[in-house]
Amino acid sequence: MKKHLVAGILLLAALVSSVSALAGETEKPADAVRLDEMTVVATPLIHGNEVDRYGAVSTVVSEEQIRDLNALDIASALRRTPGVTITRYNPVGAFGGGEGGAVFVRGMGSSRPGSEIKTYIDGVPVYMGLWNHPLLDLLPIDPAGSVEVIKGPQPHRFGDAFSAINIVPKTAYGKDTFTTLEAAGGSYGTVSQSIEHGGDLGGFDYYLGEGFRRSDGHRSGGDGRQASLFANLGMDLNDNWSARVFALGLDNAAGDPGPDTGGETDGTYDTGLRMAVVTLANDFGVADGELKFFVNAGEGYWKDQSGDDDENRNDFWFWGLKAHETVRPIDGLELTAGIDQQWWDGNIRNTKDDGTESSVLVPEFSLCMPYASANYLIGDEKGWHAIPSVGARFYSHNKFDDTTAPHAGIVAGYGTTEVHASIAKGVVYPGLEVTMVPPVSSAITKWDELDPEEVWHTEIGIRHTFNAYVRADFTYFHDDGENRYVFTPGRPPSAWSNTEEFDVQGIEASVTVTPTDDIALFASITTQDVDPDNMPYAPDTTVKAGVNWHFAELWTLSADCEYVDDMYALSQSRKTTVANTEKVDSHFLLNARLARAFELPSWSAKGEVFCALENITDTDYEYRPDYPMPGINGMVGARLTF
């Protein structure tokens, strides 16, 4: 695998050398070098890294990048995002009952049950509320207009998490009426199809869609299925107010093929979700904001589970509201105040091998999070400028102690160079899992005396646009965490306690090169140093690169590759007696998608036919020990819009 690491680093070096070459050209005026003002082929892998006025960093993957990656689910959509590591073992679907699918952001997200990462759709929480961690099959890509990977705690945006992933739904706002059909098929009996229809009728816009994909899997028992149905409706109420309703339904299943050494499988894991979000938004120029009401209900249904429980059904409910308003009383000053209020509960039903049944109705949790922040622009963003910021989020939980998460930052720059620095406290409360792991008994004490987990996150970075063709980003990050809650089993009194600490630091560097309107290149390298050093899915080094090339008028080639160091695997259990010892080897992967555009003038339609190949080098690799991933495989398909 060393040769693949060398290849990845050489590719990154080649792009950096392009920076030096292009940087020698005469620079254009500052207001003409912004990449987003150019009409070019979509950037590969990610839409871009974003730094907001609080110095907080996020990475956005757009609908175009999802299509270019031929992503069938959220894990494949984020597999090349800088700072992100994934795990999976099925071509379609993420088995939710064990180690079958997860996303990790800069070392965060490995705890189970519970997680440092929270997942959102349209800004509202969507995850397994009973066990306090994400299930990837609850995050469909069909309604995704973009996916935000929010790196590190950002109290001015969200709470109760150290990092976050948010799906921003597609809208038809400003678009003519359209209908889009897509179908594809390929290796392992994999099929995928979607139908979307929408348009803006002037004051009212609508977007309706459905998607379905399934696969037999590359191994017996590794089958999966995903189905989604969604609607996004928007209406202008007057010149200043608008309303939007987003609704989503999901029905999914994924199987566990078991270890290839012949061990027992863990059956299948079905997931479902029904959600609705109502948003009232306002825009008065000097002030804007929104009020969201949401409710979602879902389940995780573990069938044919190995061990004592033959079947395990987990039902959860979330409901609440989110509100914020930003006011600009004078030029350059932004004042924001908001509140997030959520409630959640659920129940568990177990069916034993001998036919006996039991159930657990967990207590209702609620969390109220008011917050306020301010930032002020000094100078001119096209010249010398600085934007200092400060704020805090307050947490009031119905079962645990209150706490506060402050943050401060600064963004400063001149012309095409910008630096940013921020420090923020992250807070993660114990979830419903602490009330029932292991099953409730008098031997378990003091779960309601736990403190929330905390992390102090520091980030320092620089971005420079060399000219109209090249942009580079460099970021250093450091997370110092404490109060990780774990269970100490044994003779009474067994108990939960806040006893563990962790430390993660590293760098992310990336470069985007668009030498012509027809070609775009991207490369990144992420390094991490973690303590304890057996934290899972936190590789020392990851190199990712991609290219989008539009050629011969109608053809587009999208290729991506990555090198991932060897790393510890499996989840980081919340028991003091368990330590990670399993590792998976390093690997290099290369994928490509070739598409040819076409038009049907008589139908006023346009579309494309495409062929996508994954693991072109036929690499042997695993995300979980003894769970080999597919060798070279492919799909062909077509997309038509009219």
From TrEMBL:
InterPro entries tied to this protein: Beta-barrel_TonB_sf (IPR036942), Plug_dom (IPR012910), Plug_dom_sf (IPR037066), TonB-dep_rcpt-like (IPR039426)
Domain TonB-dependent receptor plug residues, every copy: 58-160
Keywords, ordered alphabetically: Cell outer membrane, Membrane, Receptor, Signal, Transmembrane, Transmembrane beta strand, Transport
Membrane topology (UniProt): Multi-pass membrane protein
Keyword Transmembrane: yes
One of the record's GO molecular function terms: siderophore uptake transmembrane transporter activity
Pfam families, alphabetized: Plug
UniProt family annotation: Belongs to the TonB-dependent receptor family.
GO CC annotation terms, alphabetical: cell outer membrane
Signal peptide annotation: 1-23
PROSITE patterns named among the record's database cross-references: TONB_DEPENDENT_REC_3
Name of the protein in question: Iron complex outermembrane receptor protein
Gene3D superfamilies from the UniProt entry: TonB-dependent receptor, beta-barrel domain, TonB-dependent receptor, plug domain
Keyword Nucleotide-binding: no
Compartments, as annotated in UniProt: Cell outer membrane
GO biological process: siderophore transmembrane transport
Top-rank taxon: Bacteria
